[in-house]
Design goal:
Blueprint (H helix, E strand, L loop, with lengths): L1 E5 L3 H12 L4 E6 L17 E4 L6 H11 L2 E4 L9 H4 L6 E4 L5 H17 L4 E8 L9 H9 L7 E2 L13 E7 L6 E8 L2 E8 L4 H14 L5 E3 L1 H6 L2
Parallel strand pairs: 1-2, 1-3, 3-4, 4-5, 5-11, 6-8, 7-8
Antiparallel strand pairs: 6-9, 9-10
Helix pairs in contact: 1-6, 4-5
Bound molecules: NADPH dihydro-nicotinamide-adenine-dinucleotide phosphate (NDP) and ligand LZUJQKHR.
Subunit structure: Homotetramer.
GO molecular function, one term: 4-hydroxy-tetrahydrodipicolinate reductase
Main location: cytoplasm
Length: 238
């Protein structure tokens, strides 16, 4: 399977290493900030799939390429205003998957959190916290927003605490971001009740889980007709 990588940062380089080590994968092209123009004109790198871990800034050029060539797209880039909705719309032209997190653990945690939200709301207050490495550009993380959707939170009611905020308002969901060191990604959803707390945490010990998840999605996506697929659907193929 021929893979075009968009973004050659921490994720892009890890994916390139895994492609190099594998027998069935081949690197067709690398697009980075300095050669985005390579996507334009009549360029076609005969890739079976594009894997994108870059920046929302690439979206227009990438979308044009997908519409023109119909190449399957696995996208994990976060920081989009609309959390990937525009990427998902490319499903009209190619098989597409967008998720803010390609780990199996977060996929299952989102389902667990949805159940806890249903069982514990509205009497329990919900707070979401995430910790990432010092280089991460966006906050809150895409995964924190995925978990907020899962727990049934309303984005208009999210807040971060500051000194004069006063008491916590009913129905609000706290979103808290910590940045430092080399943490690949930690997410906690806490449900605070009267004299009790339920917490569920996912810790990534390496970016490898995201890269392997993206490759699993890519292998599965390539056999599909145009459309938008979820990570859960593609995992079922394995
Ligand atoms: N869904 C998931 O499971 C995961 C998602 N992510 C997300 O993936 C993205 C990348 O993460 P990571 O690799 O750690 O970040 P890095 O900052 O290490 O890498 C980003 C790469 O994208 C490049 N880039 C920046 N702007 C553009 C552009 N306009 N066009 C093409 N390339 C561009 C950067 O180039 P340059 O260095 O020259 O600026 C860099 O090579 C982030 O949004 C992150 O949140 C990360 C891990 C897992
Ligand atoms: O930037 C990262 O590193 C990560 N970003 C994703 C996010 O924003 O949720 C996924 C993972 O947590 C790592």
């Amino acid at each position: 399977m021929r893979i075009m990588l968009c973004g050659y940062g921490q994720m892009g380089r890890m994916l390139a290493g895994l492609i190099e080590e594998s027998d069935d994968l081949e690197l067709a092209k690398v697009i980075d900030a300095d050669n985005v123009a390579d996507l334009e004109g009549d360029a076609d790198y005969s890739a079976d799939v594009i894997i994108d871990f870059s920046s929302p800034a690439i979206f227009d050029a990438l979308a044009k390429y997908v519409r023109r060539t119909g190449t399957a797209l696995v996208s994990g880039t976060t920081g989009y205003e609309d959390q990937g909705e525009a990427i998902k719309a490319l499903g009209e032209y190619a098989p597409v998957i967008y998720t803010e997190n390609y780990s199996v653990g977060i996929n299952v945690m989102a389902q667990a959190v949805a159940l806890l939200g249903k069982l514990l709301s509205p009497s329990f207050d919900v707070e979401i916290s995430e910790t990432h490495h010092r280089y991460k550009k966006d906050a809150p993380s895409g995964t924190a927003q995925l978990l907020l959707r899962a727990v049934g939170g309303d984005a208009d009611l999210t807040y971060g605490r500051s000194p004069n905020d006063g008491p916590r308002q009913p129905g609000q969901v706290g979103m808290h971001s910590l940045r430092g060191g080399t943490v690949p990604g930690e997410h906690t959803v806490a449900f605070f009740g009267e004299d009790e707390v339920v917490e569920i945490t996912h810790r990534a010990f390496s970016r490898r889980i995201f890269a392997l998840g993206a490759l699993t999605a890519a292998r599965s996506l390539v056999g599909h007709t145009p459309g938008t697929y979820t990570f859960a659907q593609l995992l079922e193929d394995n």
